């Protein structure tokens, strides 16, 4: 049994069909990436899994149980967290307060321990505990958004465009942290990215989303070498 299994998922916004019957699986311990152009339906897929959007039809099973119709906070309690596109940190709160919000489904004892793990992965956040989140750099805000998601102790972490808008050196840093979360923490990762090159480099497996359908799938390595993928997403 897969950790996450998505079957024939359809999601619409009114008359707009954003996701048109996609199926994919994630095994425990994997990094799986969904790549694709703007508007392909990547964010819609993550937001639907997280319970923020109700699918028109299809199945989403996490550890053998359906997530369809389950409230977002209950999904977080089951061990599945989303780090949303555009970071969405609470700008008027401090770093510490943002992290505390992320741990709201856990006990104080658990949060104290998880905080140490978050600071190990993001030492820069530890240096800035009392800084207002809105005054952090883009890269630091991304780290905070990831740290906040980690506070819920997810077994499966969904990351929506973590590299968006970041300088190349920070992109490298964020991808290294994602790999470390997977390798050291054992966190399973579902990564949505427009930076296909980086995403495929760290992913065990990948799915290419095109206008709401899965056009291709394979290992990260296979898709990095694939001619169509190279032309469409890797600049030739
Ligand atoms: P991006 O990287 O630009 O976010 P994406 O692959 O994540 O792209 P989605 O954001 O999932 O794509 O969008 C898929 C389709 O659904 C697009 O055609 C988009 O315009 C449409 N869409 C997304 N959100 C809404 C919404 N709230 N209302 C109406 N249409 C929407």
Q: Explain this structure to me?
A:
By secondary structure, the protein is an alpha/beta fold. The chain has one domain (4-90, 154-233): Rossmann fold (3-Layer(aba) Sandwich), CATH 3.40.50.300. It has 10 helices and 10 strands. Strands 6-7-8-3-9-10 form a 6-stranded mixed sheet, sandwiched between helices. Strands 2-1-4-5 form a 4-stranded antiparallel sheet, with helices on one face. Helix 3 (95-102) runs parallel beside helix 6 (138-150). The protein is globular, with a radius of gyration of 17 Å. It binds adenosine-5'-triphosphate. Adenosine-5'-triphosphate (ATP) binds next to strand 2 and helix 1. Adenosine-5'-triphosphate is lined by residues 13, 16, 18, 36, 38-44, 85, 194.
What would you report as the Rg, rounded to the nearest angstrom?
17 Å
Class by alpha and beta content = alpha/beta
Number of strands: 10
CATH topology: Rossmann fold
* CATH class value: Alpha Beta
Q: State the end-to-end distance.
A: 37 Å
Instruction: Work out the oligomeric state of the chains in this entry.
Output: single chain
Number of helices: 10
Shape: globular
Main sheet, how many strands, which sense, barrel? 6 strands, mixed
Largest sheet strand order: 6-7-8-3-9-10
Mean pLDDT: 94
CATH homology superfamily name: P-loop containing nucleotide triphosphate hydrolases
Looking at the overall shape, the CATH architecture is 3-Layer(aba) Sandwich
Poorly predicted residue ranges: none
Bound molecules: adenosine-5'-triphosphate
SSE order, one letter for each helix or strand: EEEHEEHEHHHHEHEHEEHH
Number of discrete domains? 1
Instruction: Give the fraction of residues assigned to helices.
Output: 25-40%
Kindly estimate the percentage of residues that lie in beta strands according to DSSP. 25-35%
């Amino acid at each position: 049994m897969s950790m996450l299994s998505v079957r024939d998922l359809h999601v619409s916004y009114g008359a707009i069909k954003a996701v048109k019957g996609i199926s994919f699986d994630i095994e425990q311990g994997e990094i799986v990436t969904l790549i694709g152009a703007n508007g392909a339906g990547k964010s819609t897929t993550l937001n639907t899994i997280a319970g923020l959007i109700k699918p028109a039809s299809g199945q989403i099973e996490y550890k053998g149980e359906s997530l369809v119709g389950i409230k977002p906070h209950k999904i977080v309690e089951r061990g599945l967290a989303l780090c949303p596109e555009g970071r969405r940190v609470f700008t008027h709160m401090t770093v510490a307060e943002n992290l505390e919000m992320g741990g709201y489904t856990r006990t104080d004892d658990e949060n104290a321990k998880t905080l140490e793990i978050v600071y190990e992965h993001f030492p820069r956040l530890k240096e800035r505990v009392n800084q207002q989140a809105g005054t952090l750099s883009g890269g630091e805000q991304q780290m905070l958004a990831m740290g906040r998601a980690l506070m819920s102790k997810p077994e499966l972490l969904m990351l929506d465009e973590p590299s968006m808008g970041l300088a190349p050196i920070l992109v490298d840093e964020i991808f290294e942290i994602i790999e470390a979360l997977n390798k050291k923490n054992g966190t399973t990762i579902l990564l949505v990215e427009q930076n296909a090159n980086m995403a495929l480099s760290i992913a065990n497996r990948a799915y290419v989303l095109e206008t709401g359908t899965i056009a291709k799938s394979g290992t990260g390595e296979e898709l990095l070498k694939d001619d169509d993928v190279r032309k469409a997403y890797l600049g030739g």
